[in-house]
Design a protein that fits this description.
Blueprint lengths: L1 E5 L3 E5 L4 H9 L2 H4 L5 E5 L1 E3 L5 E4 L2 H12 L4 E5 L7 H10 L2 E3 L4 H7 L8 E2 L1
Parallel strand pairs: 2-7, 3-6, 3-7
Antiparallel strand pairs: 1-2, 1-8, 4-5
């Protein structure tokens, strides 16, 4: 499992983890995230191994996610429920850049939607 960064500060999650484990991964890249202006983070759902919706966050998971986001002044947290972003929504977010698709295997969602991005870097 890893956090992946693409050109234009597009971040995805490659692999499966629980929220606490993923927060630990994020802590490892906070110095990068803090440098990004107007960073949009999509969270609130778990993805399956194909990057599709699996289930919503529990109240405890959402509270932990909010706590992490609130510790960063540059983050706008957008709650997803009952689904991941559609192909068009994800494409628009990628065009805007400075975005983090946090659900598990969101990197596969890009692939499934045939969204090709440049300069893939595993962080």
């Amino acid at each position: 499992m890893a956090i992946i960064r693409y050109k234009n500060n597009i971040f995805t999650h490659d692999g499966q983890s629980d929220v606490d484990g993923f927060i630990e991964e994020i802590k490892g890249v906070l110095s990068i995230i803090r440098q990004i202006e107007n960073f949009t983070v999509y969270a609130g759902v778990h993805g399956n191994t194909n990057g599709a919706f699996d289930h919503n966050f529990s109240e405890e998971e959402w509270a932990a996610t909010n706590e992490m986001a609130n510790s960063l002044r540059n983050v706008t947290l957008i709650e997803l429920t009952d689904n991941v972003l559609s192909k068009d929504e994800m494409r628009r977010a990628c065009e805007n850049g400075s975005v983090f698709f946090t659900w598990c295997d969101s990197d596969k969602t890009l692939e499934n939607y045939s969204i090709t991005l440049e300069d893939r870097e595993e962080l």
